[in-house]
Amino acid sequence: MLTLNFPSFPVLETERLLLREHALTDADTLFAMRTNENVMRFIDRERPKTTQDIETFISTFNEGFKQGQHLAWVIALKENPAQMIGSIGYWRTNLANYRAEIGYMLHPNYWRKGIISEALNKTIAFGFSEMKLHTIQANINPGNDASRQILLKHGFVKEAYFKEDYYFNGQFLDSEIYSLLK
């Protein structure tokens, strides 16, 4: 069975980006993103009510990394590594089957600049080489064409379309599943 046991949080670098661990100092920025309707338009998750909710989320998530359950990075520009502009990471790890779901979000000021593509290249490579994943999966809202296109660009293949398989905000929503094999 796969284990996610790193001695310290793996910081990744690309040409423009630093992918680092979430810190409590990111709470205000993450709260702003997770309450921004443009950012969350296709992310069907509860919105935080307070910055404290986000601080709890960050602490819980960082503890989950220490327990080998998931791994997520803050996306920051190298020129300003303290300023979070997005996040990317692996959630819903299925250790028995060497699978993890990848997810990402980015502040609208940085959309259409190739940042998610750059971050995906690095995290996909890390997922296969360092985490030893066999499959990386993505679950998207079918209305999110931008996410669909970035996944296809990176070699993901559509595996499924589920009708009304997810209940959120009083309604049943559809899901599209994409995956990439090692």
Automatic annotation (TrEMBL):
Q: Which SUPFAM superfamilies does this one have?
A: Acyl-CoA N-acyltransferases (Nat)
Which GO molecular function entries does the Swiss-Prot or TrEMBL record give? acyltransferase activity, transferring groups other than amino-acyl groups
Q: Which Pfam families does the entry mention? A: Acetyltransf_3
- This protein's superkingdom? Bacteria
Q: N-acetyltransferase domain: from which residue to which, for each copy?
A: 17-174
InterPro entries recorded for this chain?
Answer: Acyl_CoA_acyltransferase (IPR016181), GNAT_dom (IPR000182), N-acetyltransferase (IPR051531)
For this protein, the parts annotated as crossing the membrane are none
Q: What is this protein called?
A: GNAT family N-acetyltransferase
Organism of derivation: Pedobacter planticolens
